[in-house]
Design a protein that fits this description.
This protein is mainly alpha-helical. It is built from one helix and no strands. 89% of the residues lie in helices and 0% in strands.
Amino acid sequence: QSLEIQCKTLQGEQIRRASVRRVTEGT
């Protein structure tokens, strides 16, 4: 269960980073 939560958090962070990158680029 812990591993699953960790995976979810990692994926969420990746998506968040992509969103931030988009905003930073101003696309």
